C-alpha cells in the first residue's frame, strides 16, 4: 500500500441497515455489490446514527460529536464555524478532501455578511472539504441540473423535478437511468478521481433512496409490490408523540403529485417497492466504483467506507421518513474495507457502534491526532483484529421542534420548541425513549416484543426505567463538549492532560 492510502467515504441517504440483513426486507432487497463488499470488508451489524434528520446526522458523522454538543440539531440550524471536522483534520495529514454531493450544513451567520447567499439555504458545505461536484436537492444550484440541460432535458423546479412521468406513483422519472442524479454523481467521481494523484480523499454522498420516491426505468418497476413484506405494527398508538408524527409525514409526502394518496397497505407496498428500486440503483453504481478501484489497481491502495446518514421508517408503525425514535430511523450500515488487514475481511461485528466512531477511526488510520472535541471512539481494533470496540450503550437524538414556525407537535401538545426533543438509549436488550417535554417515556424489551409493545407503564418495570434513565443521565454528564475540558491555563502557560 502507498505511504498515504486513498480514502473513500460513501454516504447513502436514508438507507436502512436491514436491507442488508436477514430480515423480511433483506430477503427481497437486491443489493449484490454491497453484499459482496461485506465479504471483503468488516461489517458492523449494530451501527446507529446518533441523530436525525439529514443535516444533523451528517454533522455528527463529520465532526464525531453528539448533537447535544454540536447543536446543529435541525436542517437549517447553523454549525459553529470553528468546529473541527473530518475535512479540516484530514488536511493535517496532507489530504485535500474532495466532496462529491452535499453535506446539508447550515452556515454560521456570525461570520458571514447578512446578504451572503450561503445564508439562504441549509444545503451548504461543511468546512474542510473542496466541493468537487455541487449537488443539491431543493435548489436549482446543482451540477446535475446543468448536465441534464446540456443533454436537452430541462428539469422543472423542485419538487416537480421528482414527479413521475405519468399518473401512477410507479411511473418512471422524467430522466433516464443513465442521466439520473445517482448515475451523474458516480460519473463525476470516476472522472475526477481517475485523474487524481495517489493519496486522495473522497466523500461521495448519494441522495438516493431519499424521497421523493421516483425512480428511472427500469428501477421503477424492478420490484413487485406484492412481494413486499408488511409494515411493522405496535400497541402504543395512544402515546402523545405518535399522532403528530403521523400527521407530519404521510404516505403522500413520500411522492410528488399525489396529495390524495391513500394511506393503505397497497400504498405502503408500492412505496416500499420504489424505495428498494432506488436502493438497488445506488448499489449498481457503488458496484461501478468498486470495479474501477479493482481494474485501476487502486483496490489495495484504498480504504473504503460505506455508511448512511440515517434510516427510513417505510410505513413501520404508521410512520414515514426518519422523524421518530424507532430503530429503523437510526440503524444504518457501516462497512469498512482496510486493505492493510485482509485477515479481517468478511468479519461481522456484533458490538454496538455509532456514527460518531467513523471520524476517529479514519483519523487514527491516517495518523492524525484526534481533536478533544470528539465523542466517538476509533474502531481500528476491529479492523486490525487486536480486540473488540465495545460499547455498553448507544444514544441517538431527535429534535422535533421548530423555533420559528410552531409545528404539529408544538401546536397539538402545547410544547415549546426547546421541549420538543427526545433521546434514545440502547442497551444490549432494551430501548429507553426519554422526551424533553412532559411526555411519558417509552421502554422496549427487544428480546421479547421488539418495538411492538411499550412496557414502561408496567409496575414491574419501574426499577428498570429508573436504571436506564440514570444511564442516560450519566451519558450526558460524561459526554459534554470537551474541546477545552482537558486544557488548563495557569503558571507555566497552557497545559493539556489526558486524564
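Sequence proposed for the structure above (499 residues):
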Amino acid at each position: 500500500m502507498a505511504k498515504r492510502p486513498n480514502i473513500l467515504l460513501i454516504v447513502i441517504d436514508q438507507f436502512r441497515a436491514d436491507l442488508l440483513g436477514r430480515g423480511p426486507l433483506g430477503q427481497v432487497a437486491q443489493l449484490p455489490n454491497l453484499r459482496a463488499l461485506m465479504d471483503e470488508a468488516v461489517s458492523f451489524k449494530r451501527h446507529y446514527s446518533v441523530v436525525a434528520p439529514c443535516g444533523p446526522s451528517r454533522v455528527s458523522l463529520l465532526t464525531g460529536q453528539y448533537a447535544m454538543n454540536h447543536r446543529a440539531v435541525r436542517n437549517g440550524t447553523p454549525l459553529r464555524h470553528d468546529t473541527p471536522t473530518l475535512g479540516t483534520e484530514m488536511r493535517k495529514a496532507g489530504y485535500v478532501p474532495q466532496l462529491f454531493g452535499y453535506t446539508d450544513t447550515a452556515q454560521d451567520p456570525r461570520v458571514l455578511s447578512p446578504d451572503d447567499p450561503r445564508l439562504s439555504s441549509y444545503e451548504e458545505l461543511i468546512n474542510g472539504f473542496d466541493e468537487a461536484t455541487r449537488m443539491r436537492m431543493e435548489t436549482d444550484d446543482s451540477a446535475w441540473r446543468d448536465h441534464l440541460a446540456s443533454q436537452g432535458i430541462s428539469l422543472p423546479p423542485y419538487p416537480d423535478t421528482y414527479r413521475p412521468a405519468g399518473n401512477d406513483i410507479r411511473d418512471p422519472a422524467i430522466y433516464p437511468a443513465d442521466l439520473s442524479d445517482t448515475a451523474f454523481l458516480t460519473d463525476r467521481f470516476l472522472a475526477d478521481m481517475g485523474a487524481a494523484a495517489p493519496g486522495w480523499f473522497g466523500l461521495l454522498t448519494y441522495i438516493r433512496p431519499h424521497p421523493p420516491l421516483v425512480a428511472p426505468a427500469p428501477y421503477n418497476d424492478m420490484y413487485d409490490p406484492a412481494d413486499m413484506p408488511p409494515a411493522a405494527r405496535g400497541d402504543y398508538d395512544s402515546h402523545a408523540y405518535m399522532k403528530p408524527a403521523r400527521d407530519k409525514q404521510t404516505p403522500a409526502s413520500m411522492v410528488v403529485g399525489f396529495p390524495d394518496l391513500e394511506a393503505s397497505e397497497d400504498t405502503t407496498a408500492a412505496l416500499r417497492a420504489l424505495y428498494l428500486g432506488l436502493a438497488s440503483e445506488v448499489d449498481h453504481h457503488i458496484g461501478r466504483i468498486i470495479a474501477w478501484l479493482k481494474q485501476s489497481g487502486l483496490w489495495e491502495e484504498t480504504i473504503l467506507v460505506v455508511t448512511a446518514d440515517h434510516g427510513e421508517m417505510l410505513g413501520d408503525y404508521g410512520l414515514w421518513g426518519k422523524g421518530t425514535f424507532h430503530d429503523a430511523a437510526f440503524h444504518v450500515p457501516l462497512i469498512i474495507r482496510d486493505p492493510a488487514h485482509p485477515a479481517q475481511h468478511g468479519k461481522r461485528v456484533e458490538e454496538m457502534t455509532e456514527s460518531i466512531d467513523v471520524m476517529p477511526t479514519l483519523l487514527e488510520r491516517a495518523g492524525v491526532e484526534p481533536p478533544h472535541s470528539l465523542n466517538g471512539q476509533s474502531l481500528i481494533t476491529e479492523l486490525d483484529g487486536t480486540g473488540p470496540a465495545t460499547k455498553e450503550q448507544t444514544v441517538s437524538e431527535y429534535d422535533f421542534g421548530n423555533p420559528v414556525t410552531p409545528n404539529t407537535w408544538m401546536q397539538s401538545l402545547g410544547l415549546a420548541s426547546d421541549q420538543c426533543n427526545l433521546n434514545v438509549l440502547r442497551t444490549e436488550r432494551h430501548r429507553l425513549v426519554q422526551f424533553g417535554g412532559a411526555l411519558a417515556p417509552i421502554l422496549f424489551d427487544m428480546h421479547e416484543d421488539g418495538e411492538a409493545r411499550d412496557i414502561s407503564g408496567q409496575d414491574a418495570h419501574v426499577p428498570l426505567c429508573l436504571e436506564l434513565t440514570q444511564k442516560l443521565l450519566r451519558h450526558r454528564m460524561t459526554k459534554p463538549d470537551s474541546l477545552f475540558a482537558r486544557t488548563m491555563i495557569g503558571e507555566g502557560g497552557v497545559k493539556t492532560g489526558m486524564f
